Amino acid sequence: MNELTRIETTLKDWESDQEVRWCPGCGDYAILKAVQRTLPQIGADPANTVFVSGIGCSSRFPYYMESYGFHTIHGRAPAFATGIKLANPELDIWLVTGDGDGMSIGGNHTMHLLRRNLDCQIMLFNNEIYGLTKGQYSPTSRQGTNSPSSPLGSVDRPLSPCAFALGSGARFVARGFDVSKKLPEVLIAAHAHKGAAFVEIFQNCIVYNKDRFDDFAVPKGADDTQLWCEDGQPLLFAGGTKGISLDEPNCTLKIVDVVDGDWEAAHVAVHNTKNRGLAHMLIDLRITPQFADFPMALGVIYDDPRPTFEQSVIEQNAKAAEGKDANLAKLLGKGQTWTVEG
Amino acid sequence: MATLAAEKQAGQTAPEAVVVRFAGDSGDGMQLTGGQFTLSTALAGNDLATFPDFPAEIRAPQGTLFGVSAFQINFGSTAIETAGDAPDVLVAMNTAALKVNLPALKPGGLVIADSGEFTKRNLDKAKYDTNPLEDGSLAKWDLLAFDISALTLEAVKPFGLGNKEALRCKNMWTLGLALWMFDRPREPLHQWLKQKFAKAPELAEANIAALNAGHAYGETAEISGPLKQVHIDPAETEPGLYRTVTGAEAISLGLVAGAQLANLPMFFGGYPITPASAILHHLARLKEFGVTTFQAEDEIAAICAAIGASYAGQLGITSSSGPGIALKGEAMGLAIMTELPLVIVNSQRGGPSTGLPTKTEQSDLYQAVYGRNGDAPMPVIATRSPADAFECAIEACRIAVQYMTPVMLLTDGYIANAAEPWKVPDPASYAPFPVKFLTEKNDGENLLPYKRDAKGARPWIKPGTPGLMHRIGGIEKQEGTGNLDYSPENHQAMTDARKAKVDGIANDIPAQDVCLGEEGGKLALVGWGSTFGPIHQAVRRARRKGLDVSHIHVRHIWPLPANLGDLLKSYDKVIVPEMNTGQFKTVLRDQFLVDARPLNKTSGQPFQIAEIEAAIEQALAE
Ligand code: SF4
User: Fold this and answer.
1) Residues of A whose CB is below 8 A from B331
2) What is the pTM assigned to this prediction?
3) By CB atoms within 10 Å of each CB, which of A70, A99, A154, A222 scores lowest?
4) How is B579-600 classified by DSSP, letter by letter?
5) Is residue A276 part of a domain?
6) Boundaries of domain holding A48
7) Domain total of chain A
8) Residue B405 in contact with residue B380, Cβ under 8 Å?
9) A311 — contact with chain B (CB < 8 Å)?
10) Does residue A85 belong to any structural domain of this protein?
11) CB atoms < 10 A from the CB of A340, how many?
12) Assembly ipTM
């Protein structure tokens, strides 16, 4: 995010004249709408907003936004974003990537953008499959995924994007899913974070990996399967009848029953977005087999800003230039010189 | 060119030029010694060229043959264009250095060797059965062997250094002797040592003592015969202010100048690689010139970040060597497709794969001209020498911003590391080419991001500009609007437009000149890049003998100058000497249907003048 004057826009102002070409029913449509709904809420300026993407279904996103957009090459969007932001720190950069683009071919760049803490929002659409290339298993596909390239089921173990992000030094990690009403809230928080804000968005690829996330992302039973994390609030789910508590002897998390809403009595943990250790535990819930019965942690899981990369670069550049005369003629004639008389 | 050995044979005393090679273990500080000797040579007003030749290992095991590091300098009172074929003087700081470098030494040349290093152990390491200093095997040459190690230890004794540290001063002792030999003042070296060791004055004093001792040894030692003082007159040069410059420095400075002439801040994305890193190092110290340097996580990120910066309105630059350039290929294609300016510097080295990281070659020409997927035309410029690199870097920046295209600037390991005197240019003498960004819609009510100007270039539109929001990317664009368009007619039209734009640059570059000789004749030698020196000298020598041969040196590799085809056809024969297996030769044959013949060398060493001279004579004798 950056602190420029708020611009009044509507959702319509963010729709480009390009025909949207995702498969009918693709989760990407819902994310597009959520983003177009979010930007007016944060007062973003289309002229100052840049969507940068790599390659994949998700990476078509910039074409559909009435802002500046750069559809780059497979996996490299973070590197382009770095150059753009260093060249003009005033720009508000949204990076759109997918599980293949951002975690496989571009994993290295995602890692380094996060550790450097470049100020931008990263939306990683995780559909656990390669869509654009017609359905091969991806680095987030669950073991045993049947696909054209794994007809006997994939044998690779998947990675967790949020664990990857935290491990890479991310200072903001959040989760949402395509059709969630709360997605704009998560995006607003990501935008408010100064630095690299990593948002994993579970996305339904209805053609190649249909309803992959139905075990928690459908309205039916959502209460029991979704844990919306909110800073300073108890980690409650199941309509407040259950909570997440620290299992101290085992140094892990456990589910506790909350009776009559008295979560304190049940020792339900209070979410603290600056607690990195807690973040590490929350992102594992429901994903790691040991926590399969837990709800999926969603919302802002971690948010603890520190100075951004571009800020540090700019400060260092300014300091290095301080008091120095940028005279090219002088520079060329530097060092040990001699004069040949005419 | 008269040389010390030749002159000596002729009984003369004032040679025009001398070639000296300092060789030692990679830990002996030979590059430093050579560098300082170069500076003193430049200060003495001689023209010069150098050739640093060092092993790929940072610290190869001591005393081994592959750990030998050498620095050759050719200096004289006439124009010097190469580091010289064969040295007149070889300074061998250890046994292995003698073994490796002796074959290059001119017959009758002088060997100065540290006899203290010729121990049984070192002889074994260098694979000598008997001591060459004693077995008469060096009879072809003049030999001066004395225990430089012991003399150095003696000289620095008062400073109480440990044995290892004391022996490190050996290179300064040798430099002192060399300064005496060529009649040079020691004062600048004293100043330099004091500065270098400002934090450890005792080291400065010890090194100065060693330097003085070496100098005094030459002056007073009772060595008659081979060791004589030689004075080389200053070269006749254009009046003005001079300095020495390496190719890496000159390119960095040229890029800074280019960005200034374009009126843009510069963004440089790099990743460590030999021998290209020197450019990143130089630029990292020039932040006050609006330079941002970014050491990326890999070669791909380095170019992508540079393209990102160009997209956002700065002059994006990236640099690497062959293997890194290969990694950047896909991103170059994107810069071609999105028509964004970018300069890519390739410091070529021996290939393929890791190849010979510290040795020189010109084998990335195909990669530069053709090495991308799809029809992806890109201008390529090749620099011929350290001083020329400055101009070429400016030219690369100009073409990049005026034509909205990536441009590759080819240099090589030899140019990057070699130093030569450089007449300091006046930045005001270069015509500025300030960039104008598009700030308003360019088609009435509409914005056409791919509307072309007379040069075929599209407008440069910075994100952040109100009202000009648009999307670009690697998918084929519709003419004018830049919207996605896969239609057959459009792809044909856009492919043609990209090609026409780059082809058109041929009309915006100087016509090809003949740098030595005449237009038309029996034979032309056509070179590009760092072969300039040896080709030029060889042609000069041949012409002195009355042979009809001319030298053409091509800077613009792609597109080629518009008149080059006709020019080549005006000669009976065309030979293309290059340090590869004939890449430019193939391009010329393809473009002009001329019978260009190859003269190739891929040993990782620059051409020798004699090799090219022989080829000229053979071609003209046929
Ligand atoms: S393939 Fe899947 S992810 Fe891609 S557009 Fe279709 S539904 Fe969406």
Assistant:
1) 73, 76
2) 0.92
3) A222
4) SSSSHHHHHHHHHH---EEEEE
5) no
6) 11-212
7) 1
8) no
9) no
10) yes
11) 16
12) 0.97
